[in-house]
Each structure stands twice: as C-alpha cells, then as structure tokens.
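To assess whether ligand presence alters the predicted conformation, the chain was also submitted together with zinc ion. Input:
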Amino acid sequence: MKHKKMLMVVCDGVSDRPVKQFDGLTPLQAARKPAMDAVARNGLSGTMDVIAPGVVPGSDTAHLALFGYDPYKVYTGRGSIEAAGAGIDLRKGDIAFRCNFATTDDGVNIIDRRAGRIRSGTSELAEAISGMKLEDVEVIFKEGSEHRAVLVFRGPGLDHRVSEVDPHIEGELLHSKAGSPEAEKTARLLNEFVRRSHEILSNHEVNLERQNAGLPPANIVLPRGAGSALAIESLSDRFGLRCAGIAGVTLVKGICRLLGMEVIEVPGATGGVDTDYLAKANAATGAIDEHDLVFLNVKAADVAGHDGDFRLKVQVVESIDMMLGSILKDLHEEVVVALLADHSTPVSVKDHSADPVPVSISGADSRVDAVRKYDEISAASGALGRIRGVDLLPIILGMANRSSEYGA
Ligand code: ZN
Ligand code: ZN
C-alpha cells in the first residue's frame, strides 16, 4: 500500500451565509473557481463543525482541531500560540500574552488601543522593554505586525489565570486580578509591567518623533489573552508525519511551530488581501517533495468577512482558486488534497459564526460523490456528511493509506 502525500488548504473564514443583495448567494457560490470545484467534483464533500455544533471557533482553537487535537484538552489561551508564532521558544512555566502598543494620555486612560496602527519603530520600542526584571521574573517582549506584540514572563510561581488589563475599548485601564491564589504573583507583575511600560515608552525617541509628526505615541503596552506553554505532542510523534506549514499570520505560524511543523517563510505572504498568492502556491509545491503533509493557510477571506465586503470576498476566493489551480497543475505525484475553512466569517455578521464549513477531499483513487461545486450548500449533500474538525485529519490519513489497522 503506497503512502500518499497530503495537502491541506485552509481558506480562513471563507465559509459564509447567503446574502440577499447578491441574489441570495454566498461569496463561494458567486465566485468563479474552477480549481476548487475540481477538488469537489473529483472527491468527497461534506460540512464540518470545526469544534462542535453551535461553537464559534477562534482561528487558533479551530486549527488545533483540524490537526486532530481536542482544543478543550490542549488550549490554554492565545498568548502562548502568538509567542510561538513570533519565534519565542516557550519553556514550561512561562506565561505568554498577546499585546497591543496603545496610546494613553495619563497612564490610566486609553485613547487609542492601537496607537494609530503604528507601523514603524516598534522593534526599537520592544527592545527598550525586553529584558526588564520584575522581582525574580524575566520579561521577554517582541514586536509583531503593526501595533501587535508578544510578552512572555519567565520565572518561578507564575499562573495564567489572571483577569485582563486591556479594557478592549477606548477607556480606563483595568486592574488585573488573580483568578486563583496561585495567580496572585502574575496579576501583580502584570499590573507592574503595564505601569513600567508606560514609564519607559513615554520618553522614548520613537514616540517623541511620533508626537512631533502629530501621530499618537505608542506609550503603553496592553497585554491580554494570558496562556501557559502548551504541552502538545508533535504531529511527527503522534502520526509519524513530516509536515510543512505555510501561513501569513503569526497566530497560524505559531500553531504550526507548536505542532512541530517546519514553517516555510514566504516573502510576500502578508496575511492580508494583498498577499502574494502565487508565491504561496510555489512554496506549497516546493514543499511537497520533502514532506508528508503540506498545510497552507490563506487569511484573506477572513479579512474580507470581517470587513463585511461581499465583492472583496468573491475576489479573494477567485485569487485563492488561481493559487490552488497553480498548485494542482504542478503536482507530479498522487496527493490527497483537502480544501476547507477553519470557520465561517459571514459578511453579514462581520465576525466568526458557528455555521459549519464546507470541506472537499480528493485523491487519485478516492471515492467520488455527486457534489460538483465547492460551496456551503453543495457540500452539505456530499458523502462525508457532517463531521467534526478533530475527525478531519484521520479521514485524510485514511484516504492517503496512512492509517493503521485496529485489531487483526
Ligand atoms: Zn480563522
Ligand atoms: Zn477572523
């Protein structure tokens, strides 16, 4: 039995609902997408509750499920995944936070949670903060894209069960409180960290220049989403797979790193609608020779969904289709191809929803059902039925002749 290679293409948030103003179609139904439809036509389709029916997935918990990990068992918060994505190797006992550079007028009142979506100077600002000592705890701080950053506390006696300091809207800074006695030190240090970040950043040269230019200074750090280091068995230990991951956004790269994938950096892969689709296609076809499973995430459809922009989402679908077409054309061996979304981001909702997502899986000798098109409605009549996210990888492994026999 020959093992087949596997390609998993996740169109982030592409799944949607019918929109009245556009003939009651979903963006997937409205788009011209011959490559996606070919995957549906040559294989099996179905719909998928990525976490569970009625649960709205985050991109992080969704991707854990898509690789066969029960998010309710392994997920401790987004911070640790962002930290892995930023290339910080978390150790046991570390606590990680996602952060924003923000603007405050007095150290308490937040007037811009994103510091005017600051684009330059954040690495200098991060350097000024990183290495700070809080009692016996070391602070590791790294800038991300735009106003985003990652904070890690490393030291004894830390716990992630602390309440937020980020008010999540412009307004007064919150005071972090411990959610359990073990977390008291972490809450205390978190409050201290925010205060010190304001002290250090207020007079930083980057901010003085911003103020001179009439821009809001990035003069405080707002951490949120505390998470402890995840103890996750890698995909290679669990399934014996050599995996490669291609993604534009830090969060998804973080999941890839946590699961032990080789993360392939693609210049021009931005995580936005302006991403370089063909560069991602080339990276995927290049990676398939050396790996058993190549995972490719395209974030742009989620962005269009959050913007509530139907036409943009249709355009994104057609760009992803061009990317997929280019990959399929260049594959020179039998590959099981899975096409799916990690959650729905309907343009009418402008956020993630609990609607199940369409999934199509094809391979050279795979069974073929009657579904001809890749979209939410067509897929629902397919032979895969309605599955859960944690079942996806086992199904793909089975179609790739990589499952082991149970019993004799
Ligand atoms: Zn997502
Ligand atoms: Zn989203």
